[in-house]
Protein backbone atom coordinates (compact mmCIF):
# COMPACT_ATOMS: atom_id res chain seq x y z
CA UNK A 1 0.00 0.00 0.00
CA UNK A 2 1.33 3.41 -0.99
CA UNK A 3 2.20 5.77 1.84
CA UNK A 4 0.27 9.00 2.25
CA UNK A 5 1.85 12.12 0.80
CA UNK A 6 3.04 14.29 3.69
CA UNK A 7 4.56 17.08 1.59
CA UNK A 8 2.20 20.03 1.69
CA UNK A 9 4.05 21.91 -1.08
CA UNK A 10 3.31 19.59 -3.99
CA UNK A 11 4.02 21.10 -7.42
CA UNK A 12 0.99 21.85 -9.58
CA UNK A 13 2.34 19.73 -12.43
CA UNK A 14 2.39 16.52 -10.39
CA UNK A 15 -0.51 14.07 -10.82
CA UNK A 16 -3.41 14.63 -8.48
CA UNK A 17 -3.16 11.03 -7.36
CA UNK A 18 -0.26 8.69 -7.96
CA UNK A 19 -2.08 5.60 -9.14
CA UNK A 20 -0.49 2.76 -11.12
CA UNK A 21 -3.04 0.52 -12.85
CA UNK A 22 -2.79 -2.07 -15.58
CA UNK A 23 -4.76 -1.75 -18.81
CA UNK A 24 -7.08 -4.53 -17.67
CA UNK A 25 -7.76 -2.72 -14.38
CA UNK A 26 -8.52 0.49 -16.28
CA UNK A 27 -10.97 -1.35 -18.51
CA UNK A 28 -12.67 -2.96 -15.51
CA UNK A 29 -13.03 0.42 -13.82
CA UNK A 30 -14.30 1.99 -17.04
CA UNK A 31 -16.92 -0.73 -17.44
CA UNK A 32 -18.08 -0.28 -13.85
CA UNK A 33 -18.44 3.48 -14.21
CA UNK A 34 -20.22 3.13 -17.57
CA UNK A 35 -22.71 0.72 -16.01
CA UNK A 36 -23.40 3.13 -13.14
CA UNK A 37 -23.83 6.02 -15.59
CA UNK A 38 -26.14 3.92 -17.80
CA UNK A 39 -28.24 2.87 -14.79
CA UNK A 40 -28.58 6.51 -13.72
CA UNK A 41 -29.61 7.46 -17.26
CA UNK A 42 -32.29 4.75 -17.33
CA UNK A 43 -33.68 5.91 -13.97
CA UNK A 44 -33.66 9.51 -15.21
CA UNK A 45 -35.48 8.49 -18.42
CA UNK A 46 -38.17 6.64 -16.44
CA UNK A 47 -38.76 9.72 -14.29
CA UNK A 48 -38.68 11.99 -17.34
CA UNK A 49 -41.14 9.77 -19.24
CA UNK A 50 -43.74 10.47 -16.54
CA UNK A 51 -43.54 14.24 -17.11
CA UNK A 52 -43.52 14.29 -20.92
CA UNK A 53 -47.06 15.73 -21.10
CA UNK A 54 -46.17 19.13 -19.57
CA UNK A 55 -42.94 19.18 -21.60
CA UNK A 56 -44.85 18.57 -24.83
CA UNK A 57 -47.28 21.31 -23.79
CA UNK A 58 -44.36 23.76 -23.45
CA UNK A 59 -42.82 22.70 -26.77
CA UNK A 60 -46.10 22.96 -28.68
CA UNK A 61 -47.15 26.29 -27.14
CA UNK A 62 -45.77 28.25 -30.14
CA UNK A 63 -47.92 26.12 -32.47
CA UNK A 64 -51.01 26.92 -30.38
CA UNK A 65 -50.19 30.61 -30.64
CA UNK A 66 -50.00 30.31 -34.43
CA UNK A 67 -53.36 28.52 -34.53
CA UNK A 68 -54.92 31.25 -32.37
CA UNK A 69 -53.50 33.98 -34.57
CA UNK A 70 -54.85 32.33 -37.72
CA UNK A 71 -58.17 31.54 -36.08
CA UNK A 72 -58.24 27.95 -37.37
CA UNK A 73 -56.74 24.50 -36.79
CA UNK A 74 -54.33 24.58 -39.73
CA UNK A 75 -51.34 24.68 -37.41
CA UNK A 76 -50.81 21.36 -35.68
CA UNK A 77 -48.08 18.96 -34.63
CA UNK A 78 -48.28 16.06 -37.06
CA UNK A 79 -47.73 12.45 -35.92
CA UNK A 80 -47.51 10.51 -39.16
CA UNK A 81 -47.07 6.93 -37.91
CA UNK A 82 -48.51 4.51 -35.37
CA UNK A 83 -45.48 4.75 -33.07
CA UNK A 84 -44.83 8.48 -33.60
CA UNK A 85 -46.30 9.57 -30.26
CA UNK A 86 -44.26 7.02 -28.33
CA UNK A 87 -41.14 7.90 -30.30
CA UNK A 88 -41.44 11.59 -29.42
CA UNK A 89 -41.96 10.81 -25.76
CA UNK A 90 -38.86 8.61 -25.80
CA UNK A 91 -36.84 11.39 -27.42
CA UNK A 92 -37.98 13.82 -24.75
CA UNK A 93 -37.38 11.27 -21.99
CA UNK A 94 -33.83 10.67 -23.21
CA UNK A 95 -32.96 14.39 -23.33
CA UNK A 96 -34.46 15.15 -19.91
CA UNK A 97 -33.14 11.91 -18.42
CA UNK A 98 -29.67 12.89 -19.59
CA UNK A 99 -30.00 16.16 -17.67
CA UNK A 100 -31.51 14.56 -14.57
CA UNK A 101 -28.76 11.96 -14.39
CA UNK A 102 -25.99 14.46 -15.19
CA UNK A 103 -24.70 14.65 -11.58
CA UNK A 104 -24.15 10.89 -11.59
CA UNK A 105 -22.57 10.38 -15.01
CA UNK A 106 -20.52 13.57 -14.76
CA UNK A 107 -19.12 12.34 -11.47
CA UNK A 108 -18.31 8.94 -13.01
CA UNK A 109 -16.43 10.63 -15.87
CA UNK A 110 -14.68 12.95 -13.44
CA UNK A 111 -13.69 10.12 -11.07
CA UNK A 112 -12.25 8.13 -13.97
CA UNK A 113 -10.06 10.88 -15.44
CA UNK A 114 -9.14 12.77 -12.24
CA UNK A 115 -6.27 10.43 -11.18
CA UNK A 116 -4.42 11.31 -14.39
CA UNK A 117 -4.77 15.08 -13.96
CA UNK A 118 -2.39 17.43 -12.22
CA UNK A 119 -3.61 19.62 -9.38
CA UNK A 120 -3.63 22.68 -11.64
CA UNK A 121 -5.67 20.82 -14.28
CA UNK A 122 -8.13 19.72 -11.60
CA UNK A 123 -8.65 23.32 -10.47
CA UNK A 124 -9.09 24.52 -14.05
CA UNK A 125 -11.56 21.74 -14.83
CA UNK A 126 -13.64 22.42 -11.73
CA UNK A 127 -13.69 26.14 -12.51
CA UNK A 128 -14.60 25.49 -16.15
CA UNK A 129 -17.52 23.21 -15.26
CA UNK A 130 -18.65 25.51 -12.45
CA UNK A 131 -18.99 28.38 -14.91
CA UNK A 132 -20.07 26.49 -18.04
CA UNK A 133 -22.97 24.49 -16.58
CA UNK A 134 -25.05 27.42 -15.22
CA UNK A 135 -24.30 29.49 -18.33
CA UNK A 136 -25.46 26.63 -20.58
CA UNK A 137 -28.76 26.28 -18.72
CA UNK A 138 -29.19 30.06 -18.77
CA UNK A 139 -28.79 30.00 -22.55
CA UNK A 140 -31.35 27.19 -22.85
CA UNK A 141 -33.79 29.18 -20.69
CA UNK A 142 -33.38 32.27 -22.87
CA UNK A 143 -33.94 30.01 -25.87
CA UNK A 144 -37.26 28.84 -24.42
CA UNK A 145 -38.31 32.46 -23.96
CA UNK A 146 -37.62 33.52 -27.55
CA UNK A 147 -38.56 30.21 -29.24
CA UNK A 148 -42.25 31.14 -29.71
CA UNK A 149 -41.24 34.37 -31.48
CA UNK A 150 -38.91 32.49 -33.83
CA UNK A 151 -41.54 29.90 -34.79
CA UNK A 152 -44.20 32.60 -35.21
CA UNK A 153 -41.86 34.53 -37.48
CA UNK A 154 -41.22 31.49 -39.67
CA UNK A 155 -44.94 30.71 -39.78
CA UNK A 156 -45.69 34.24 -40.99
CA UNK A 157 -44.22 33.30 -44.38
CA UNK A 158 -46.86 30.59 -44.90
CA UNK A 159 -49.72 31.81 -47.17
CA UNK A 160 -53.12 32.23 -45.53
CA UNK A 161 -54.51 29.51 -47.79
CA UNK A 162 -51.85 27.03 -46.68
CA UNK A 163 -51.80 24.63 -43.74
CA UNK A 164 -48.87 24.51 -41.32
CA UNK A 165 -48.44 20.93 -40.15
CA UNK A 166 -45.20 20.34 -38.22
CA UNK A 167 -43.78 16.84 -38.48
CA UNK A 168 -43.09 15.78 -34.92
CA UNK A 169 -39.48 14.58 -35.34
CA UNK A 170 -38.40 17.58 -37.42
CA UNK A 171 -40.07 19.98 -34.98
CA UNK A 172 -38.45 18.31 -31.96
CA UNK A 173 -35.01 18.34 -33.62
CA UNK A 174 -35.41 22.01 -34.50
CA UNK A 175 -36.32 22.96 -30.91
CA UNK A 176 -33.51 20.83 -29.44
CA UNK A 177 -30.87 22.22 -31.78
CA UNK A 178 -32.10 25.77 -31.20
CA UNK A 179 -31.78 25.40 -27.43
CA UNK A 180 -28.35 23.78 -27.78
CA UNK A 181 -27.11 26.62 -29.99
CA UNK A 182 -28.25 29.22 -27.43
CA UNK A 183 -26.69 27.19 -24.61
CA UNK A 184 -23.35 26.90 -26.40
CA UNK A 185 -23.45 30.61 -27.30
CA UNK A 186 -23.69 31.47 -23.61
CA UNK A 187 -20.79 29.12 -22.81
CA UNK A 188 -18.51 30.59 -25.50
CA UNK A 189 -16.92 33.14 -23.09
CA UNK A 190 -15.78 30.22 -20.92
CA UNK A 191 -14.00 28.76 -23.94
CA UNK A 192 -12.25 32.11 -24.44
CA UNK A 193 -11.03 31.94 -20.83
CA UNK A 194 -9.84 28.38 -21.41
CA UNK A 195 -7.87 29.50 -24.46
CA UNK A 196 -6.38 32.31 -22.40
CA UNK A 197 -5.32 29.98 -19.58
CA UNK A 198 -3.78 27.68 -22.18
CA UNK A 199 -1.69 30.58 -23.48
CA UNK A 200 -3.34 30.56 -26.92
CA UNK A 201 -5.25 33.83 -26.63
CA UNK A 202 -4.31 36.91 -24.60
CA UNK A 203 -6.74 39.17 -22.83
CA UNK A 204 -5.60 42.08 -24.98
CA UNK A 205 -6.46 40.12 -28.13
CA UNK A 206 -9.92 39.33 -26.76
CA UNK A 207 -10.62 42.97 -25.94
CA UNK A 208 -9.35 44.11 -29.35
CA UNK A 209 -11.98 41.92 -30.98
CA UNK A 210 -14.90 43.65 -29.25
CA UNK A 211 -16.12 45.24 -32.48
CA UNK A 212 -16.36 41.87 -34.19
CA UNK A 213 -18.02 40.44 -31.08
CA UNK A 214 -20.67 43.20 -31.12
CA UNK A 215 -21.43 42.59 -34.80
CA UNK A 216 -21.62 38.79 -34.35
CA UNK A 217 -23.77 39.06 -31.20
CA UNK A 218 -26.14 41.54 -32.87
CA UNK A 219 -26.42 39.42 -36.02
CA UNK A 220 -27.00 36.28 -33.97
CA UNK A 221 -29.68 38.01 -31.89
CA UNK A 222 -31.34 39.43 -35.01
CA UNK A 223 -31.53 35.97 -36.59
CA UNK A 224 -32.75 34.33 -33.37
CA UNK A 225 -35.52 36.87 -32.68
CA UNK A 226 -38.27 38.29 -34.90
CA UNK A 227 -37.57 41.62 -36.58
CA UNK A 228 -40.53 43.29 -34.86
CA UNK A 229 -39.37 42.30 -31.37
CA UNK A 230 -36.53 44.79 -30.92
CA UNK A 231 -36.55 44.38 -27.14
CA UNK A 232 -35.77 40.64 -27.28
CA UNK A 233 -33.06 41.22 -29.88
CA UNK A 234 -31.35 43.93 -27.83
CA UNK A 235 -31.65 41.89 -24.64
CA UNK A 236 -30.08 38.79 -26.18
CA UNK A 237 -27.35 40.78 -27.92
CA UNK A 238 -26.63 42.71 -24.72
CA UNK A 239 -26.25 39.52 -22.67
CA UNK A 240 -23.83 38.01 -25.19
CA UNK A 241 -21.77 41.23 -25.38
CA UNK A 242 -21.58 41.53 -21.59
CA UNK A 243 -20.42 37.93 -21.31
CA UNK A 244 -17.76 38.58 -23.96
CA UNK A 245 -16.50 41.71 -22.18
CA UNK A 246 -16.40 39.90 -18.82
CA UNK A 247 -14.35 37.10 -20.36
CA UNK A 248 -11.92 39.67 -21.76
CA UNK A 249 -11.56 41.40 -18.38
CA UNK A 250 -10.95 38.09 -16.63
CA UNK A 251 -8.38 37.17 -19.26
CA UNK A 252 -6.58 40.48 -18.63
CA UNK A 253 -6.47 39.68 -14.90
CA UNK A 254 -5.07 36.22 -15.59
CA UNK A 255 -2.45 37.74 -17.94
CA UNK A 256 -1.46 40.17 -15.20
CA UNK A 257 -0.92 37.29 -12.78
CA UNK A 258 1.10 35.40 -15.40
CA UNK A 259 3.20 38.50 -16.08
CA UNK A 260 4.10 38.80 -12.40
CA UNK A 261 5.12 35.14 -12.17
CA UNK A 262 6.90 34.92 -15.53
CA UNK A 263 7.77 38.41 -16.82
CA UNK A 264 10.04 36.97 -19.52
CA UNK A 265 7.05 35.41 -21.28
CA UNK A 266 5.49 38.86 -21.75
CA UNK A 267 8.66 40.73 -22.63
CA UNK A 268 7.48 41.25 -26.23
CA UNK A 269 3.87 41.98 -25.31
UniProtKB/TrEMBL annotation:
* Pfam families to which the protein is assigned, alphabetical: TatC (PF00902)
Compartments annotated for it: namely: Cell membrane; Membrane
Q: Which residues form a coiled coil?
A: none
> Domain of life of the organism in this record?
Bacteria
The membrane-topology field of this record reads: Multi-pass membrane protein
UniProt keyword annotation of Plastid present: no
Q: Which UniProt keywords apply?
A: Cell membrane, Membrane, Protein transport, Translocation, Transmembrane, Transmembrane helix, Transport
> Where would you find the membrane-spanning parts of this chain?
34-52, 92-113, 125-147, 174-198, 210-228, 234-254
Q: What is its main location?
A: membrane
Question: In its keyword annotation, does this UniProt entry include Cell membrane?
Answer: yes
Q: What InterPro entries would the database entry show?
A: TatC
Record text on subunit structure and interactions: The Tat system comprises two distinct complexes: a TatABC complex, containing multiple copies of TatA, TatB and TatC subunits, and a separate TatA complex, containing only TatA subunits. Substrates initially bind to the TatABC complex, which probably triggers association of the separate TatA complex to form the active translocon.
Q: Which HAMAP family does the UniProt entry name for this protein? A: TatC
Similarity section: Belongs to the TatC family.
Functional summary from the UniProt entry: Part of the twin-arginine translocation (Tat) system that transports large folded proteins containing a characteristic twin-arginine motif in their signal peptide across membranes. Together with TatB, TatC is part of a receptor directly interacting with Tat signal peptides.
NCBIfam families hit by this protein: tatC
Record-given protein name: Sec-independent protein translocase protein TatC
Species assigned in the record? Microbacterium gilvum
Gene symbol of the encoding locus: tatC_1
Amino acid sequence: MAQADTDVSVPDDMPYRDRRMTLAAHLVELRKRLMIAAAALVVGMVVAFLITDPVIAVLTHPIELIAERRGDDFAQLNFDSVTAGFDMRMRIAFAIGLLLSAPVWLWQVWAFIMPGLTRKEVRYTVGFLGAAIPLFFAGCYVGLLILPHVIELMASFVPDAGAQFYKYDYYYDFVLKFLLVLGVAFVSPVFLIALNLAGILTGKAIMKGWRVAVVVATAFAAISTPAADITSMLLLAGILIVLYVLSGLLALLFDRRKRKKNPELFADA
